[in-house]
Specification:
The chain is mainly alpha-helical and about 950 residues long. The protein folds into five domains: about 160 residues, no CATH class; about 35 residues; about 190 residues, no CATH class; about 290 residues, Rossmann fold (3-Layer(aba) Sandwich); about 45 residues. About 55% of the residues lie in helices and about 5% in strands. It is built from 30 helices and nine strands. The strands form two sheets. It has a seven-stranded mixed β-sheet, with helices on both faces. Helix 1 crosses helix 14 and helix 29 crosses helix 30. The longest helix is centred in the N-terminal third of the chain and has 57 residues.
């Protein structure tokens, strides 16, 4: 109940947020048209930031709402909000002429941080496919995609990961699952226990030698001999540096022996009598009573002294314990305070994962998310039960009502027109139109009959004259339409010329700013306010059960429609009987009405009529055989579980000022790639959100292209189809079109799917190298657009993803035709390089010093070395032997730099090579081409201005 109430409160706040965003939309429409691009950018970026927050809130509501009817409303809102957010982002890209957009000004006005506008993975991803197809894929043993040897994702798995050994050839041998983290903890615990026991043994031995009076003494004729031993911290392995240890299983306390006969030795447990002070003799004679009384007093005094001495010892012990505890607690609090202060100041990052409440929250949300299927099933059962109840209780009465309404319609026509109108066909609406009163009335029928009689009385000249007048009116209408079209075309041409000369004028009331997504969002929230006005979402229905009144109304309409279809033929037969009887009474010949055919779709003539395609999914064996064929050809492959967060990189914090105030073209940050790719993937889920058909990732070797490919597959839950040149090489050229059709057919069956092509430039070589001539790479580029890209429909959850590290080797035209988006991965800047080094060193635990100079390391390597080279360098330097030396030889920055220079030499991703990517990208990407042209014009204008200023000074 508490969770339902919390979700209801959050939904109410989100609905208010929707109203606030819509009010901002209406406010933007009241702004006067302007030519200032900065004003447009500020307004659109402000609205974009608001929509990002709204999409996040709606995503959380859709994820945690169990009430099915409310979830359907939220789904429509989420879909419209996502579409509108992507439209605003596209508008920002058109304004800035780049895929990388910066909204720092809006963040400052709205008091947000960059993480608040970063795209997150929606709750409906990864998508789930049918159990049948998923079981078919899981039952096949797939090979992993080859990510190359230089990408960032080639790093070995962490030691803390659970590694499952490969399945042995013997199926009877069980698969052993090793928990390496547990093994490491057990080994560390054994080592600590060994050291602690040895330390306690050394303490006992020292106390025995320094304080023999407090322990059992030993005989004079027996000596304690040192025992030779070897200490091993791990069975079967000797330490690299031998260290003297103490055997902790030897009892230093000697056994008790009978030494009473020795005059010079006192037996164990023997206590010497307490020496008392000499008492002066009292010559006076005491009575026995006095002697007895004095003895009792002495015993009482002695007992009091012993009790006081015991109490003093206890007090001293308690004081010592308290003193030690307070000192320990003070040191612990001070140490923790220093740690927290250093962590807050950013002096180091906590290498150990800390337990927070976020994991508990995630578990609660996941448990609530799993209950969605239960509520959906209960909703479907409620619908079926309600429909069955309506058919059982109201079905006969509804049939009678429909029949009575249609027969009353017959009576009305007979009384007023002395005829019977034809009942509309089912594709026209059937008897539903009669009940609604949307058919022809008897008076209209009589007017039509009278007009027909008048038309028969007209002469041929009158008919010809009327036909000419109608034809002239039609031609005049067509002429007006053509003139209006030409006028609009001329206005558009004048507008483009004016915009080219004076600059574009942005009108916020035009469709480019007021889209269908905004109208849909406004309509859905208005209908929600109307439908849920009388429902208290906080107090009522804590169990989140469906509202039965709405189900009853919906099923009543559905049952009514079905019953209309059932009685249609019966009432149609009654009408024919009545018409035959009327013709017999009027003594006229009966003409049965002609059966009307449903209208044919436009553009579907007889010549274009095609047979429906065969359903290849009807035969399960055919589907299995197709999947087995692709598995045998190594087309279907598995991939590692990666996310876009694994692509390490920071955003650019100075790009907004440089682009919008200094009019410079800044270098984008690596962290912005995550938001761009997620904006492409919203359409891979169950929502109807636009997405590109194909993406091409460009960048030097080792920049993380394969990692991004695996992250796209994992986050969307897609099946990976590898169409690389090496995979397609064994396929003969004559069978290649059929092979691509098979890949596309299976991809549609198991969608969402990702068709991956690594090294796409090999398929479009300008000149095929000799080492690739045998594989015939050109056959893939020849058929790729026609058989894959062109066949993809907007509703298909299929994405074509390609990568390339040498795109200038390919033909520009054919490659540009196959891909909608070309994304050039940026070079690591200072912030991204710092994060890369932190990530690379954090994998080796607490042995790496926290005060290592990452700033100097990042300054020396930024923009020069890729993520893959940095990770490979840390693996090679920080081997097992080097990590064992951390205690006496801390890690130095020079070791990492020396290793980088030794292994790579010249920087492969240096500025000169990266300029080749930038130059090629500006040829194929539309926004990049326009951005390059704009920067060139700005540079020429700046040079002209400087020349004029120099001439004026002279």
């Amino acid at each position: 109940m508490a969770q339902s109430k919390a979700v209801a409160k959050f939904w109410i706040a989100t609905s208010n947020q929707i109203e606030h965003v819509l009010s901002q939309e209406r406010l933007m429409q009241t702004v006067e048209p302007t030519k200032d691009v900065r004003v447009v950018h500020r307004l659109v970026s402000d609205l974009y930031c608001r929509y990002v927050g709204l999409c996040r809130s709606l995503d959380r509501c859709f994820d945690q709402t169990l009430q099915v009817q409310k979830r359907q409303v939220i789904k429509g809102l989420l879909e419209a909000a996502n579409v509108r957010m992507l439209e605003l982002r596209t508008k920002l890209q058109e304004i800035e002429l780049s895929e990388f957009v910066y909204v720092d000004g809006a963040l400052q006005e709205l008091h947000l941080i960059p993480d608040d506008v970063e795209a997150v993975r929606p709750c409906y991803m990864p998508a789930k496919r049918s159990v049948e197809f998923q079981s078919l894929i899981d039952s096949r043993k797939l090979e992993k995609i080859d990510g190359g040897n230089s990408d960032e994702e080639e790093s070995e798995p962490d030691e803390s990961d659970q590694v499952v050994e490969e399945e042995p050839e013997n199926p009877l041998r069980p698969v052993v699952k090793r928990d390496r983290m547990k093994e490491r903890l057990q080994a560390a615990l054994s080592l600590i226990l060994a050291h602690e026991k040895a330390r306690q043994a050394r303490v006992r031995q020292t106390n025995f030698r320094l304080h023999p009076d407090r322990y059992y003494p030993k005989p004079i004729d027996e000596e304690i001999e040192d025992i030779q031993y070897d200490f091993f911290f791990r069975p079967g392995q000797q330490m690299l540096y031998p260290v003297k240890r103490t055997v902790y299983n030897w009892d230093f306390r000697m056994k008790r022996k009978n030494v009473v006969n020795f005059a010079y030795y006192k037996p164990p447990g023997y206590q010497a009598p307490i020496a008392t002070e000499p008492v002066a003799k009292d010559t006076s004679i005491k009575k026995p009573s006095q002697i007895q009384q004095s003895g009792a007093l002495e015993e009482l005094a002695e007992s009091n002294r012993l009790e006081a001495r015991k109490r003093q010892r206890l007090n001293n012990a308690a004081a010592t314990i308290q003193h030690c505890w307070r000192r320990y607690h003070t040191r612990k609090v001070a140490k923790r305070a220093r740690y927290e202060r250093s962590k807050f100041l950013g002096l180091f990052d906590a290498l150990e994962p800390t337990e927070t409440n976020s994991s508990i929250v995630d578990e609660v949300r996941a448990a609530r998310r799993e209950r969605k299927q239960e509520f959906d099933q209960a909703f479907l059962e409620a619908i079926e039960d309600e429909k069955a109840r309506i058919l059982r209780t109201r079905g006969p009465a509804l049939l009678e009502d429909i029949g009575d309404a249609v027969r009353a319609w017959f009576r009305q026509w007979y009384d007023e027109a002395h005829a019977f109108d034809v009942i509309p066909e089912l594709f026209q609406g059937g008897t539903v139109l009669i009940v609604r009163g949307e058919t022809l009335t008897p008076l209209e029928y009589l007017e039509q009959e009278r007009q027909k009689q008048l038309d028969k009385l007209k002469s041929a000249e009158q008919r010809k004259k009327e036909a000419e007048v109608a034809k002239a009116a039609k031609e005049q209408e067509q002429l007006k339409r053509r003139e209006e079209k030409a006028r609009l075309k001329e206005l558009a041409r004048e507008k483009r010329a004016r915009e080219k000369k004076e600059g574009k004028t942005y009108d916020f009331t035009e469709p480019e700013f007021v889209s269908n997504a905004y109208v849909t969002l406004e309509e859905i929230i208005r209908r929600y306010r109307k439908d849920w006005e009388f429902i208290n979402e906080l107090e009522d229905n804590h169990d989140e059960l469906p509202i039965m009144e709405w189900i009853t109304l919906e099923k009543m309409a559905e049952v009514h429609q079905e019953l209309h279809h059932e009685v249609h033929e019966l009432l149609k037969s009654e009408r024919e009987l009545l018409q035959m009887a009327l013709c017999k009474d009027e003594r006229i010949k009966y003409k049965p009405p002609k059966a009307k055919k449903p209208p044919r779709a436009k553009g579907k003539g007889k010549s274009n009529r095609k047979e429906p395609p065969m359903d290849i999914t009807a035969d399960r064996h055919a589907v299995e055989s197709m999947i087995d064929e692709l598995v045998a050809r190594n087309v279907l492959k598995s991939y590692r579980s990666r996310t876009l967060e694994d692509f390490i990189g920071d955003i650019s914090y100075c790009a907004f000022e440089r682009r919008n105030r200094l009019e410079q073209d800044p270098l984008p940050g690596m962290g912005e790639v995550r938001t761009i790719l997620r904006s492409y993937l919203y359409g891979m889920g169950p929502l109807s959100v636009p997405k590109p058909k194909s993406i091409c990732l460009l960048g030097p070797s080792g920049c993380g292209k394969t990692l991004l490919l695996e992250a796209i597959c994992h986050e969307t839950g897609s099946i990976l189809f590898d169409l690389g040149v090496d995979t397609c090489g064994p396929v003969p050229a004559s069978e290649f079109p059929a092979f691509l059709q098979l890949v596309l057919a299976v991809a549609r069956l198991v969608q969402p799917s990702v068709i991956a092509i690594e090294g796409i430039h090999r398929a479009f070589y300008k000149k095929i190298p000799t080492h690739d001539a045998q594989t015939d790479p050109g056959k893939l580029g020849k058929h790729l657009f026609k058989l894959i890209v062109k066949q993809l429909k907007p509703e298909d959850k299929i994405l074509l993803v390609a990568t390339s590290d040498a795109p200038w080797l390919a033909k520009v035209g054919p490659l540009k035709k196959c891909f909608e988006k070309f994304l050039l991965l940026p070079r690591p800047d200072y912030g991204s390089t710092v994060l890369l080094w932190q990530h690379a060193l954090r994998r080796f635990g607490v042995g790496v010093p926290r005060d290592i100079d990452l700033s100097a390391l990042a300054t020396a390597t930024r923009g020069c070395y890729s993520a893959g080279q940095i990770l490979r360098c840390t693996r090679e330097v920080l081997g097992i032997r080097r990590r064992m030396q951390f205690g006496r030889k801390p890690l130095d920055v020079a070791e990492l730099l020396d290793r980088l220079l030794e292994s790579t030499g010249e920087c492969p991703s240096a500025e000169k090579e990266y300029e080749k990517f930038v130059k090629w990208h500006s040829k194929v990407d539309r926004l990049a081409k326009m951005r390059t042209k704009l920067m060139r014009e700005r540079q020429q204008l700046a040079e002209q201005t400087r020349a004029k200023e120099a001439g004026t000074k002279k």
